[in-house]
Amino acid sequence: MARFTNIAALTLCSVALMAVSRAKVSQAFHSGGPGNCSGCHSMHSGQPGSQWLLQKSDPSSICLNCHSGFGGPSSPSVFSPNGSALTPGGDFYWLTKNFSWIDGQSPGHEHGHNIIAVDYNLQPDPVLFQAPGGTYPSNRLSCISCHDPHGQVRGGSRQGGLPISASGSYGDQGNPGTIAGNYRLLGDSFYSGGSGASGNSFSHDAPIARQSSVSQFEESDTSHVDYGSGMSEWCANCHSGVLNSEHQPAGGFEHPAGTSEKLDSEIIANYNTYLRTGDLSGTAANAYLQFVPFERSISNTELLDPHSTQGPNANANVMCLTCHRAHASAFDNIGRWDFKASLLSQSHPAIGDTGAAPTDVSYSYYGRDIASEFGSGQRQFCEKCHGSQTP
Predict the structure, then answer these.
(1) Residue in 172, 180, 170, 143 with CA at minimum distance from that of residue 32
(2) How far is Cα of residue 345 from the mean position of the Cα atoms in its chain?
(3) What share of the chain is helix, strand, coil (3-state, %, to 5)?
(4) Is the distance from CB of 188 to CB of 154 less than 8 angstroms?
(5) Other C-beta atoms within 10 Å of 46: how many?
(6) What tens digit of pLDDT does each residue of 158-175 get?
């Protein structure tokens, strides 16, 4: 019965799609309207072994069917064959890379969220069986654990969430009289966390953020996500231990994160003047560093500017993505930089590491040469906020 119900729903979807086409109404793929159902689902039979009449083996494989490939300024890829997808969330390529050197190693499963995409040989985390600080099962983790592929808000499709009239993927405001979508189609409160999430239900709304919808996907200091509010709270849907984490007992999360964790005056001064280790000659107007983003405590996306280089003010707060990427990075713990290196010019992957391709070094820091730009004595980017007191 469920199979025929799905077919009937897809038939109605296709009929609606034809009606929209005749009306010459243009919509993005994840528009929340009829969209392109056949881009993911088959009308009569899906991939053998898959559910929901999918054309691939599982949800993540369906996502990567469009979102994999070589990266670049105009590419929506999040899984490249060489680390060239320099998106704000990072490149799942790094999950496939195991680095080792004389006195250390960095296994691929440490580099990101280990999404399951059978058709792309991406497997569950072999060490962690549930989300750190939470209970989300790692053997159920997929792209739709975080993103609602139907682009619906207010609880997602399972909660009868409303369809949006524009993608919302960039955090843009919708047209007057329409429903704006969530940033990056992230699941809202009451979202199920994907159909295989063992009854998980989100309790925090999707964050407020905005990325340029007209220029490029490739992150830099002048084109990046401008984070407004709620990012850490949203991460806490699965990682509940990260909020107000300085109050956690020994052995728990130690660094505070969340909208209540405002940057104090000393941190703001450090961020706005810091250019590199030993150089505090910067100005607030050009202080933004892509490796150390922050939230501006803004709830109106129209007030966010993804091309702004302005540093933080007294309203700003630290968040999970200040130090981590959302998808994957070249470094352990999905770090934006190598947390293990005393000097960032000595980061791994490095030339000569077992398992490292020549381009891995450059792509690990998004094409920026740390030694030449910041100096061979550049220490951890923790200094951007905490100054030279960083141990």
Answers:
(1) 180
(2) 25
(3) 30, 10, 60
(4) yes
(5) 20
(6) 566 666 555 557 777 666
Using an 8 Å Cβ cutoff, are 79 and 65 in contact?
no
Q: Is the peptide bond before 256 cis (omega within 30 degrees of 0)?
A: no
Contact 52, 43 (CB under 8 A): no
- At position 144, the amino acid (one-letter code) is I
Distance between CA 385 and CA 377 in Å, rounded? Answer: 18
The sign of the torsion formed by the CA atoms of 98, 106, 86, 166 equals positive
Q: By three-state DSSP, how is residue 38 classified?
A: helix
Number of C-beta neighbours around residue 43 at 10 A: 14
Q: Which residue has the tokens 């296994």?
A: 107
pLDDT one-digit tens code per residue, 6-33 = 433 333 343 333 333 333 333 456 654 4
What is the full DSSP assignment across 290-319?
TTS--B-----GGG--TT------TT-B--
CA distance 184 to 170: 6
Percentage with pLDDT > 70 across the chain? 78
User: At which residue do the structure tokens 């792209």 appear?
Assistant: 143
Name the one residue in this structure whose structure tokens are 């030339």: 351
Is pTM beyond 0.85? Reply is: yes
Helices (H), the chain: 2-22, 59-67, 231-235, 265-273, 358-364, 370-374, 383-386
Nearest to 317 by CA among 336, 296, 286, 299: 296
Phi/psi at 120 (nearest 5 deg)?
-115, 15
Of 128, 163, 130, 166, residue with least CA distance to 145: 130
